[in-house]
């Protein structure tokens, strides 16, 4: 036997997905039924006190952990829980309070610009439409989706790295980019699960279906998973 062949034998075969198409509605319903049973009322992990502070927290959370954002915003929101109070703090103080968060300089600048626009164009209220939200400095589609879902109860699917990973691994909504996954989730998820779907997917990806070492041994949908990343003891 050649050295190349011996090397190939020592490498364990990985289970591959042979069908990249989305799962059947029945399978998806079963997945989300289990998620709902495990977490009947899932919630996001960012701390906030009103729609405005939620908007700011989500803006700050880009490329940062929720825990890190919460640590920074505890004092920030004690001092400023309205656009007017945030403007009164000024960009320098906002920047100082959030300097432990990645990209803090740009984010502080966007927070101040966002407050100015909220006051000037929206009567200091957080707008309730995607178009209006995305017109605010620093607010993209994912941030708008989170605010619409949590603050205003709309069925939206904010696709972060966790949702993207889980949606592909479980074949709920396979896609090569976040928009493909988002639109796939809109079509695939039964309406009864829509309100909380992105929370279940985020939490599953954050604590169980992790990027490098998924905890398949404790996964409540492991029997429905055929991902190449599945780790079977």
TrEMBL record:
Q: How is the cofactor bound?
A: Binds 1 [4Fe-4S] cluster.
* Annotated positions binding [4Fe-4S] cluster: 209, 216, 219, 225
Q: Which InterPro entries match?
A: DNA_glycosylase, Endonuclease-III-like_CS2, Endonuclease3_FeS-loop_motif, Endouclease-III_FeS-bd_BS, HhH-GPD_domain, HhH_base_excis_C, HhH_motif, Nth
Q: Which GO terms describe its molecular function?
A: endonuclease activity
Q: Which UniProt keywords apply?
A: 4Fe-4S, DNA damage, DNA repair, DNA-binding, Endonuclease, Glycosidase, Hydrolase, Iron, Iron-sulfur, Lyase, Metal-binding, Nuclease
Cofactor entry:
[4Fe-4S] cluster
Known EC number: 4.2.99.18
Describe the location of the HhH-GPD domain by residue ranges: 60-207
Quote the biased-composition stretches of kind Polar residues, using this chain's numbering: 1-11
Q: Reaction(s) catalyzed by this protein?
A: 2'-deoxyribonucleotide-(2'-deoxyribose 5'-phosphate)-2'-deoxyribonucleotide-DNA = a 3'-end 2'-deoxyribonucleotide-(2,3-dehydro-2,3-deoxyribose 5'-phosphate)-DNA + a 5'-end 5'-phospho-2'-deoxyribonucleoside-DNA + H(+)
The record's SMART domains line, in alphabetical order, gives:
ENDO3c, FES
Q: Name one Pfam family in it.
A: HhH-GPD
The yes or no answer to whether the keyword DNA-binding is present is yes
- Region feature (Disordered): 1-23
Would I find Nuclease among this entry's keywords?
Answer: yes
EC class of this enzyme? lyase
Function per UniProt: DNA repair enzyme that has both DNA N-glycosylase activity and AP-lyase activity. The DNA N-glycosylase activity releases various damaged pyrimidines from DNA by cleaving the N-glycosidic bond, leaving an AP (apurinic/apyrimidinic) site. The AP-lyase activity cleaves the phosphodiester bond 3' to the AP site by a beta-elimination, leaving a 3'-terminal unsaturated sugar and a product with a terminal 5'-phosphate.
PANTHER family found in the cross-reference section: A/G-SPECIFIC ADENINE GLYCOSYLASE/ENDONUCLEASE III, ENDONUCLEASE III
Family per similarity comment: Belongs to the Nth/MutY family.
Spell out the protein name for this chain. Answer: Endonuclease III
* Source organism of the structure: Bosea rubneri
């Amino acid at each position: 036997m050649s050295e190349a062949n011996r090397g190939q034998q020592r490498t364990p075969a990985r289970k591959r997905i042979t069908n990249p198409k989305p799962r059947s509605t029945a399978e998806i319903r079963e997945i989300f039924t289990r998620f709902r049973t495990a977490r009947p009322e899932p919630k996001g992990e960012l701390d906030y006190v009103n729609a405005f502070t939620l908007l700011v927290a989500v803006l700050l959370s880009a490329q940062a952990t929720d825990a890190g954002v919460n640590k920074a915003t505890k004092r920030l929101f004690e001092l400023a829980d309205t656009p007017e109070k945030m403007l009164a703090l000024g960009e320098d103080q906002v920047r100082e309070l959030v300097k432990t968060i990645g990209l803090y300089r740009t984010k502080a600048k966007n927070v101040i610009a966002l407050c100015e626009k909220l006051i000037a164009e929206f009567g200091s209220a957080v707008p309730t439409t995607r178009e209006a939200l995305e017109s605010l400095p620093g607010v993209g589609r994912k941030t708008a989706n989170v605010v619409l879902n949590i603050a205003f109860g709309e069925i939206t699917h904010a696709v972060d790295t966790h949702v993207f990973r889980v949606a592909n691994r479980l074949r709920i909504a396979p896609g090569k980019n976040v928009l493909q996954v988002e639109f796939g989730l809109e079509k695939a998820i039964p309406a009864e699960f829509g309100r909380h779907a992105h929370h279940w997917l985020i939490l599953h990806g954050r604590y169980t279906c992790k990027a490098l070492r998924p905890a398949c041994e404790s996964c409540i949908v492991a029997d429905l998973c055929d991902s190449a990343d599945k780790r079977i003891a």
